[in-house]
């Protein structure tokens, strides 16, 4: 498990959206989205419910 991906997950959870978290970190939204998707594949669990207004952590998130 990669610590950077976990840090991205934490930032997205705190910010409530990939876009807000990525802007705060001065990186692209796709970089954050990819990191979380990779983490989800790695642990075989969905971490966020994605909505048009942002993200909501699942029970596993």
Give a verbal description of the structure.
- By secondary structure, this protein is of the alpha+beta class.
- It has helices at residues 3-15, 18-24, 29-43; strands spanning 48-51, 54-57.
- The protein has one domain (3-57): Winged helix-like DNA-binding domain superfamily/Winged helix DNA-binding domain (Arc Repressor Mutant, subunit A, Orthogonal Bundle).
- Helix 1 (3-15) packs across helix 2, helix 1 (3-15) crosses helix 3 (29-43) and helix 2 packs across helix 3 (29-43).
- The chain is globular, with a radius of gyration of 10 Å.
- The mean pLDDT is 95.
- GO terms for molecular function: DNA-binding transcription factor activity; transcription cis-regulatory region binding.
Percent of residues in helices: 55-70%
Beta-strand content estimate: 5-15%
User: Which value, in Å, is the CA radius of gyration?
Assistant: 10 Å
Uncertain runs: none
Assembly context of the chains:
single chain
First and last CA, distance: 15 Å
Total individual domains: 1
State the CATH topology: Arc Repressor Mutant, subunit A
The secondary-structure class comes to: alpha+beta
Q: How many distinct helices?
A: 3
Instruction: Record the strand order, biggest sheet.
Output: 1-2
Largest sheet: 2 strands, antiparallel
> Which CATH architecture would you pick?
Orthogonal Bundle
Mean pLDDT: 95
User: How would you sum up the global shape?
Assistant: globular
Number of DSSP-assigned strands: 2
What would you give as the CATH superfamily? Winged helix-like DNA-binding domain superfamily/Winged helix DNA-binding domain
Order of H and E elements? HHHEE
According to CATH, what is the class?
Mainly Alpha
């Amino acid at each position: 498990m990669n610590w950077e991906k976990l840090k991205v997950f934490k930032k997205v959870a705190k910010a409530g959206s990939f876009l807000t978290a990525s802007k705060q970190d001065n990186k692209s939204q796709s970089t954050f989205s990819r990191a979380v998707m990779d983490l989800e594949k790695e642990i075989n669990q969905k971490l966020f419910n994605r909505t048009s207004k942002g993200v909501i952590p699942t029970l596993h998130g």
